[in-house]
Amino acid sequence: MERGDFERLSTLWLDDEISCIHPGWPVLSGRGEVLRSYALIMANTEYIQFFLTDVKVSVSGDTALVTCTENILSGGPAEEAGELGPLVGQLVVATNVFRRTSDGWKIWSHHGSPVLTESDDDQDDEAPA
């Protein structure tokens, strides 16, 4: 994802029935819908970097569950001067389910939910008078 390599990203997913929920999106089902969503995200994101924290892995047979916090830094399309647009940070908690195949571990399902944080304006409203 960070390198913008759609072909490589598509090899990480199972060929079977898969599902994906990006933060704020509806459930996407099937390889076509899921991979189209990543193509759309990659086409509209000039820069993206993931810092994974709170990673927990559980394996049972040929199934693995991985949960983590995705600390995402991304930038929009370039400005007129050719410089990267403003960078935006976002926290997403993610659950990823993998299946072991003859070709190695493949993603079966991804679910990302935004982490809602208190803004400075919210904190000012709660300050004593």
Helix/strand layout:
Blueprint: H1 6-11, E1 19-21, E2 28-29, H2 31-43, E3 47-60, E4 63-75, E5 87-101, E6 104-114, H3 120-126
Parallel strand pairs: 1-6
Antiparallel strand pairs: 1-2, 3-4, 4-5, 5-6
Question: What is shown here, in short?
Answer:
With 129 residues, the chain is an alpha+beta fold. 20% of the residues lie in helices and 45% in strands.
Describe this structure in words.
A hairpin with a 2-residue loop joins strand 5 and strand 6 (104-114). The termini are far apart. The model has no long low-confidence stretch (mean pLDDT 89). With 129 residues, the chain is of the alpha+beta class. The protein has helices at 6-11, 31-43, 120-126; strands at residues 19-21, 28-29, 47-60, 63-75, 87-101, 104-114. It has a six-stranded mixed beta sheet with strand order 2-1-6-5-4-3, with helices on one face. The radius of gyration is 17 Å and the shape is globular. Helices cover 20% and strands 45% of the residues. It is built from three helices and six strands; from the N terminus they run H-E-E-H-E-E-E-E-H.
